[in-house]
Every structure is written in C-alpha cells, then in structure tokens.
Amino acid sequence: MSREPDPAVLYPDVVAHGSLAAALQAAADDQGMFLPLAVTPSDPLRHATIHSVVPHRHSSYVTAWHHKRRWSLRGASNNRVMICGNTADLYGLPRVIRGWAEGAPLEEIGQAASFDLLTGRFEVPDNNPADVTASEWQCMRKDAATVGWPQYQALIETAHAEPKLRRLYPYTNHWALGFAAPDLPYNTPAFVSIEPPRGTGDYTIRQWWNGPALHHVPTPAEAVAIAVGRIPADLLQGSSDAPASNA
C-alpha cells in the first residue's frame, strides 16, 4: 500500500497560503474576484467550503486529491448534486465557484468551466416531485451516454421512452435500473430491477437488484415491458406524466 504524500509535496502553493480556501482566494484575486469560501478546520490544506447566496444550494465544496495534484468541486441543490468535476487547474476554479455562489444558471456555470462539470440535472428549488423526477431522468440519460456501455444506454433510453416508467423516479443500484414513487423515492418497496448485459447476453429482471432472477430477455424493449407489468397499482393510480426533460 503506497504511503500518502505530504500535502506540501503535491500542494506547495496551498501550503504557502496556509489553506486551500486562501489559495483559491489568491487565485481569484488575480482575476478580480471575491469568493465566499470557508476553511475546513479538519483538513484546511485539502478542503474548502463554498457558501452560496441561493438558499437551496448547499453542501458545496472543493477538495484536493491525496495521491495526485488535482481538485474536485461539488455543489448540491436540495440534496441533489448539480455540479461535480475534477481539474488540475487551480486558476480555473474561481470562475466556477463564483458562479455557483452567486446563483448563476447551471448552463452559465458549465460554460465558465474548463472541465466537464454539469451532471445533467436541472435545479428544482421547490422540490416539486414531477420536476425532480424529470431532472433525475435527464441526469441518468447524460450519464448513460458517456459510460461507453451500449446495452446500458439502450435500457435507459427505452425506459425513458415509456410514459408509465418516465413518470416514476429512476435510480440504479450496481448499474441495475429501478423505479420509485416520485414523492417517496426512498420509501418505495422495490418491485423491479433490470440488469443490462455487458457485451452479449440477456437483460435480467429481478424484484430487487441482488434478488433471484425472474426473467432473462434479449432486448431492452422486452425488459421494459416486463417492468411496466410489475408496476404496483398504487403507483399507477392518480399519477400524471412528468416532463420528459429540460434538454
């Protein structure tokens, strides 16, 4: 097991400023900006907290990697990650931090970043369940398009195209796709889990992600049809179709 380098080895400039927050502010000073940052007392050289004027933007911070000179930036809105990315360019972070802190639109923040940052979600300040669900689908579709797994992407797109599934909150567990009630996504009993194949093979249907296999089918369309047939009646009654996406 490799020993973790001393922060002074990877981040001598940060050490010289006394904290990551101070180093980021120094980089911002060179660009004529002020950043609302706070030092994290438990790890001041590798962690800084971002404060936003937007109430629902929280749990936002910059962290330094332990074994490589690199930083990660993360910003959440109503407990859902909206921006998340990694960069080796300290001077590229202030523009993103300021935009997030001052309430700039996500698209504008993404354009200011020199690295891939947007998760695909759109913000839902009022936590409306239908919009939260649509936001989650948008994130899932973006992710599926970038992972290089055609069978997984086909499953996500096929499920999204089915109105009865699109109105449900999507989630994955070990890459297996499941669905929940939009207003109670973390308290909905599992009723179906679809595991995509890697390469050749079938889509596997279970009740929950590591439960016994119930069906093996060759196409995502067949898997989605089985999933629709397993939707509990109480999830079908009284629900309206959620927006497809903001894309």
TrEMBL record:
InterPro entries, sorted: DUF6193
Taxonomic superkingdom: Bacteria
Pfam families: DUF6193 (PF19692)
Protein name: DUF6193 family natural product biosynthesis protein
Species in which this protein is naturally found: Actinomadura gamaensis
